[in-house]
Amino acid sequence: MNSPAAVWLAFLACAALIGAAGYQLSLAGDTIARRTGLSGNWIGLTLIASVTSLPELATGITSVTLAHAPNLAVGNALGSCVLNLAFLVVIDMVHRREPVWSRASRGHVLAAAFGVVLLGFLLLGLLIGQLSPTSTEPTTHAPRWNLGLMTPVMLLLYVVAMKVVFVYERTHPAEQANDNAASTLDAAIPPLRRAIVRFAVSALVVMGAGLWLPFAAVDLAHAMGWNRSFVGSLFVAMATTLPELAVTLSALRLGALDMAIGNLLGSNLFNVTIIAVDDLFYRPGALLADVSLVHAVTATSAIVMTGLAVVGLFFRPRDRVLRAVGAISLALTAVYLLNTYVIFLHGT
């Protein structure tokens, strides 16, 4: 068994690769999108959100196939959701000119609402899965399916969400925030072919690191005596959301606030859908029937945090507590910390 120092070194090296390659991947995706004429909100919600979620996708598939760690897969995806919502607090702290809730476009409410619906179906699937008969119960029960009941619903709902948000953006252009700061850099944007090459290379690095990550996380859980749900929901989630954080901070430097928020909310839509994709690769049975019920706490926390974000986007509070962050951001932080504490105590 490797020493704790070696295990931590491997985990941090994997996280560093994901962060560096994920940032390059996001820049290349942004370039490709702008060269093809897509808007800033659509870039953040779809293209950048999907490519920055590649680590969660790679980690999830590897966890349920090679690493045989279903709790790690679900914990990583849901942990990434609550961490992305916690990044809204970072945006609020960094965006000093005015509270982020009073500046962001109300169009983000639609993506957030779909996020709540997706999380709700996932929570329903988790609870139904826990009520399903296990393999140790009498064979008179109905046989278990190899696919969760909510998996097809979640996959279809993600497609519907992308379509509805796209149509809304096309029909309500005046309501979308204008990220002009990014458009001033058009002369410096690399050619499309170069961006595609950078995108492909960075994607390979992210996928490779994502394949390595679950094994490093399992070793970390063993070395530190922690449960896998906690490691997946906190440490693996932190590593796989490094691309989202890198993109968020980069977009803020460019003044593209709505791109940053769209990336986080779009990543959450994709992350929840990743659990449905993981279920397709999980052969022992329905994925949500074989994981700890403690993940319901993380799913519920993500729903509450998304609801708080919707309140902030609609109500647009301008207050700041101690001139630092708004009350909505404090509430988001409190829910995130509570979720982490519960997962640490009761995870498996």
List its salient traits.
348 residues; mainly alpha; A middle domain of Talin 1; calcium channel activity; transmembrane helix
What does this structure look like?
The structure is a single chain. About 5% of the residues have low confidence. This protein has 348 residues and is an all-alpha fold. α3 crosses α9.
Oligomer: single chain
- List segments where confidence is low: pLDDT < 50 over at least 5 consecutive residues: 135-143, 176-185
Q: For the record, what is the CATH homologous superfamily label?
A: NCX, central ion-binding region
- Radius of gyration, in angstroms, nearest whole number: 20 Å
CATH class: Mainly Alpha
Q: Say what the CATH topology is.
A: A middle domain of Talin 1
Helical content class: over 70%
Order of helices and strands: HHHHHHHHHHHHHH
**N-to-C terminal Cα separation, in Å?**
21 Å
Average pLDDT works out at 81
Largest sheet: none
CATH architecture: Up-down Bundle
Q: Count every helix, treating DSSP H or I runs of 4 or more residues as helices.
A: 14
